[in-house]
Amino acid sequence: MPTVADREAGQLYDVAMKVLGPAFRFGWRFHVDGLENVPTEGPAIICPNHTSVLDSFFLPVVLPRQITYVGKAEYMDDWKTKYLFPALGMIPIDRSGGNASERALAAAQRVLERGELFGIYPEGTRSRTGTLHRGHTGPARLALRTGAPIVPVGICGAREIMPPDARFPRPFMPCRIGFGRPVDVERYRDRAGDRLVLRQITDEVMYAIRSLSGQEYVDEYATKRAESLPTETARIPGQPEATTNGQEAPRRSSADVLRPRTAAPST
Q1: Based on the number of CB atoms within 10 Å of its own CB, is 193 exposed (0-12), middle (13-18) or buried (19 or more)?
Q2: Do residues 140 and 147 make contact, with C-beta atoms less than 8 angstroms apart?
Q3: How high is the mean pLDDT of the chain?
Q4: Residue 242 has pLDDT above 50, yes or no
Q5: What angle is formed at CA 171 by the lines to CA 165 and CA 172, rounded to 5 degrees?
Q6: Average pLDDT score over residue span 69-91
Q7: Fewest C-beta atoms under 10 Å: which of 62, 67, 158, 174?
Q8: pTM of the predicted model over 0.70
Q9: Beta strand segments in 157-228, E
Q10: Residue of 46, 110, 100 lying closest to 71 (CA atoms)
Q11: Distance between CA atoms of 90 and 185, rounded to whole angstroms?
């Protein structure tokens, strides 16, 4: 059953977009690619990189459909965000006590089961350095529970518009938002409890985000507490495993796959 927070979230979404949409499009130059990769109907999980507080405003402005997020309940204590964020579709989640991540996933599952878009940042928090961090497996768990595709998103320029700790955004700057091909998890539905499958899906999504954003990849979590999951990763499709003397070479981590190759020094 929907909670009170679920019902209230997004009630003023259309009104907010009619006000914020024109204002944001006047204030910044948006360049959007791959919007056809967002399903026109039915559920989908929107997975962007996260380098600026403006990411949660820019995505709703360029999307043709309503998107819902979960956010920390502390936003409801600040007069600046108490009404604005729920109007934009944020469901507040109390992170104190109990399993906050499970409550967030349960709220997200209800959104997807209604056939709507749900947005989640796989890094778990904003990247303070602008680099792309190792992804958490929440989006993969959510996709396996609901069957919804994951749409990777690369946002470029939002951090330059509003750097960390800046009080106000810089106007009239460009922001490019690219939507990648959806990651279909249907082939993994019978292995939803396999941790390596969760990691493989997550690495596939992060690889796509890196390609869209052009960010440097760092194989560590942006959040303070990492997940208790294997650090060894499954192979990303399309990246063949090498062999040495007839034996399989050590499996590469997501950092090995995503890290740009450097040319060998000439002799």
Answers
A1: exposed
A2: no
A3: 81
A4: no
A5: 140
A6: 73
A7: 174
A8: yes
A9: 174-179, 217-218
A10: 100
A11: 25
